[in-house]
Structure formats: structure tokens, C-alpha cells
Amino acid sequence: MRKCLGLLAAGVSLLQLCSFANAQAPNALERAFGDAQPCRSLKTKVSSFGISVEVGVDKLDSVKIENLQLSVNGNAAEASARGTLACKTSDEALVEGGFSATAEVRLKVDLTTCKTTETSIDIVKTGGRFGDIVKGLETEISGALRRSLEKNLAKLCEK
């Protein structure tokens, strides 16, 4: 328990310091999302000139964390964040393009078990060439973000 709390405290300190990092350079939190490759599993169908082609919008373009709030009350931790994830096709794709999705994420964690007890991910804004079809990929995007969050939380609790 103390080990988990100590790690959470260290993580909170690190995340707070990172939130003040230079806006142009990815901070540690943004790099952690990038390392998890949240775009890897995203694929969609695009029609052009009457031909339908499956396109993988599966290459990470950028991650930007706009705000992050953390709070701890006893053995319960809560976090909320707003950020933008941008994915694009590979350079070899027949149809090139990408999308951006701004999401609001909330999660609750039980610090005694290091388990996520609640998670919500809402996509509030989209953009890019394939931005209009992001709603069709919302489940995949939310799942990728959820897996990334849980994976990085698990890493904190292992130490």
C-alpha cells in the first residue's frame, strides 16, 4: 500500500512538472501515450471514384495534453484530462490523410489494488481529412486510449 502511494505521489509530482513543460516539446505524459501507439489498430473504409478501399489511419501523428487534474482522497484517486490525439495513414498509403480527435478522459483508481474502477472517454471535437468518420471509430479510439491509460497505470503500480 505504501509502495503504491509513494509511486502515485511520485507520478503526480512528475505529471504536475510536465504540465508546465515547453508547449512545443512533448512532455513525459505525451511521450507515454505515444509509446503506447494508440493509433495502431485504427482502420476505416474510404470511397473514391466509386472504389472502396480499406485505409489504416494507424500511424501516430501527435499527442497534446491540454489539461490534467489529479486528486487523491484516502485510497481513491481521480484523474481527468483533455487532450488531442492525431493519427495519419502511412506514407505508402494509396489514400493519404488523417484525423484529430479531442477527448475528455476521466478515471478513478483504487489505490489499494491499483485497479481502475471507472473510466469515461468522450470525443468532443474532430478534424482532418478523415475527421467526419472518427465517430465510426469512436469505440476503437476509446479502447486504444483506455488500454494505454491502464497499461501506464499498471507500470506505476509494479514498482
Strands of the biggest beta sheet: in what spatial order?
3-4-5-6
First CA to last CA: what distance?
12 Å
Largest sheet: 4 strands, antiparallel
What gross morphology would you assign?
elongated
How is the quaternary structure best described?
A: single chain
Strand tally is 6
Structural class: alpha+beta
Mean of the pLDDT scores?
75
Weakly predicted, low-confidence segments: 1-23
Helix-strand sequence: HHEEEEEEH
Strand coverage percent:
35-45%
Rg:
17 Å
Kindly state the percentage of residues in helix: 25-40%
State the helix count: 3
Outline:
With 159 residues, the protein is an alpha+beta fold.
Descriptive notes:
It contains three helices and six strands, in the order ααββββββα. The protein has helices spanning 2-19, 28-35, 138-158, and strands at residues 43-48, 51-56, 59-73, 76-88, 98-110, 115-127. It has a four-stranded antiparallel beta sheet with strand order 3-4-5-6. A two-stranded antiparallel sheet has the order 1-2. The longest helix is centred in the C-terminal third of the chain and has 21 residues, at 138-158. The termini are close together.
Task: Give a topology summary.
Blueprint: H1 2-19, H2 28-35, E1 43-48, E2 51-56, E3 59-73, E4 76-88, E5 98-110, E6 115-127, H3 138-158
Antiparallel strand pairs: 1-2, 3-4, 4-5, 5-6
Task: Supply database-style keywords.
single chain; 4-stranded antiparallel β-sheet; elongated; 3 helices; disordered N terminus; 30% helix; alpha+beta; two-stranded antiparallel sheet; 159 residues
